[in-house]
Target: Putative pterin-4-alpha-carbinolamine dehydratase
Amino acid sequence: MTVLSQAHCEACRADAPKVSEQELADLIRQIPDWRVENRDGILQLEKVFAFRNFARALAFTDAVGALAEAEGHHPALLTEWGRVTVTWWTHKIRGLHRNDFIMAARTDELAKGAEDRA
Model:
């Protein structure tokens, strides 16, 4: 099994398959702090990250944005004082793809680095 945090996104087309229920169960175990949300029939991965202040939350948001640009896969980001909500899903397929789990794991790695600098 590939470690998600070390994987990279693959190009995704509109006809790419969503993760199956079994794949979802297997992949979510690798990112246990993430929740699966269903918004208007679209499954999404979501997690809230806590920080000591707005500046640290904003720096984390910038780091996630840079990662998203590098991978060509972009989340919804909500930055507030002391917290950032990150939501991953694949817009083209209106649901979850393996890429979303990769990016969630890589987001966790960024958060660990942010904690080290706190």
